[in-house]
Amino acid sequence: MLKPRNTGPMLAMALAGSLLASVCMPALAQQTQDARREAARVPPRPGMMPHAGRMFPGSSLSGVPGFALPSVHTQQAYAPDGTFTARWTRADALQIKAHSSTSVPAGQNSLPAQLIMPDIPADFPSINPDVWVWDTWTLIDKHANQYSYNGWEVIFCLTADKNAGYGFDDRHTHARIGYFYRRAGVPASRRPANGGWIYGGLIIPEGAQEQVFAGTTYTITAEWSGSMRLLNTNGNDVSLFYTDMAFNRNAAGEDITPSQAVITQSLGKIHADFNHVWFTGFTTHTALLRPDGVLYQNGAQNPYYNFRDPFTFEDPKHPGTNYMVFEGNTAGQRETPRCTDADLGYRPNDPQAETLQQVLDSGAYYQMAAIGLARATDSSLSKWTFLSPLITANCVNDQTERPQMYIDNGKYYIFTISHRTTFAAGVDGPDGVYGFVGNGIRSDFQPMNYGSGLVLGNPTDLNTPAGTDYDPDPQQNPRAFQSYSHYVMPGGLVESFIDTIETRRGGTLAPTVKVRIGGAASAVDTHYGNGGLGGYGDIPANRVDINILAFIADLASQNAQVGRNVTGQINAFLNSGH
């Protein structure tokens, strides 16, 4: 390895200047353009965010005739280690249907335009010809800032081999965490249509994740979603938090025993030279959390339980303490009705309220989603303890996937994603993003937008059955399943993947959109990109990690393998105009 003292101070200064120029200047220019665009906005109108005003008409909690009023939520903060759990109630979720038009032609969008993702064209490009891509996340620090590393933006995706002989809908049991990279600071207008992402390969060495399931019976393993934490924002140590999955299935693909889901950590390092990004490590995998059956449902209680998608962060109000949010289900036997009047959330004497018995008789008690919370008990983030759930959706929904904590202007937002098909009987809503706001990590979270929770849905006609993404109802909006697995990034940018558009299957990155967030309301920014659609996979870093010494060491190690001269490579880079 090339020692730093042998490189010379002038070389390091030149390399640092070049890297900073290539990364920071385009990003600063883009920020200046964004500021000018914001200043030039036209006066507020429905469909865009007013300055210092209400988000859009109809954002009050006064309710809609013929529907029950939403539940009352104070947004009050409680101790993170406390037992208070907020509820996304039926009274809340019914506001989605309350604000859906009953008069649109079949197959149109019946939901408020301010809360709906614009139509994605059916001729979308593919990010890569060899792998399907779906759940995607970024390289983040403890405050969810997104980092480029030594001049490269990096994303992590669930991937599956397109050429392995199985179909797109069978991808989940074959999922592996892959990564893509591209030059940082290049605006979307100067990138290829597919975002310009270069596939780097898999993060975890083949079979390494299986160590977590030693001593158990399984037939196949998979790697499901999580997050990638940059442990030192001036270094290259990273921690992967992900969901390690093991399935025990027969030849027909049926479960012999319930799947095993383990929230897991693996450590590695990120590397980069002038030409590419690569990773080392991820050979040791530490089981962090398994569902306990006390706070979070496990496979013995429900073979269809959910336990996945870890997202870690540090709370500014509790410096030095790290927390994790994740998807779970309320503990208890699946067949046993456990919903209460509090889960329904109706106000006293509301004439539109359902009775608890009516809800239980509908079978809604099978839907018991929860957003879980855990706290790290050591500095290496390798030991965690469960805390009480932050939000439950009992008798409302069965999936609150990929939750994340988004802190802005003193407000704590939880964003999660869910499907139309996972809502409980009597409740309806589109595939998309749902959001809740409070005054701390643990709050009486208020569902955003009319008290409904809907933040960014696919264009959907709630008057028409949904079908499924692989078999949609012919009368349904052809973009009801256009995108999923949305991830809210700094500044309200939202990335997702394309699922199905006009019967064309995706498995590729969707256009980025932007959501304006203010208090308990939000609206799609139709001035972002082209009518609200940004570039495909436009996932920009808002912070930079410049690690000169590691860069020189990585450059030396790569060039030594092929016998190239490091100084010559640096000179070529400096003379190339990057």
From TrEMBL:
Residues the entry annotates as binding substrate: 225, 308-309, 399-401
Keyword Metal-binding appears in the UniProt entry: yes
Domain of life: Bacteria
Keywords linked to the UniProt accession: Calcium, Hydrolase, Metal-binding, Signal
Residue positions binding Ca(2+): 333, 398
Signal sequence range: 1-29
Cofactor(s), names only, from the UniProt record: Ca(2+)
Site (Transition state stabilizer) location in chain: 309
GO biological process: carbohydrate utilization
Molecular function terms from GO: hydrolase activity; levansucrase activity; metal ion binding
Pfam family, one: Glyco_hydro_68
UniProt xrefs under InterPro entries: Glyco_hydro_68, Glyco_hydro_beta-prop_sf
Annotated family: Belongs to the glycosyl hydrolase 68 family.
Protein name: Glycoside hydrolase family 68 protein
Organism: Acetobacter garciniae
Taxonomic lineage from the root: Bacteria, Pseudomonadati, Pseudomonadota, Alphaproteobacteria, Acetobacterales
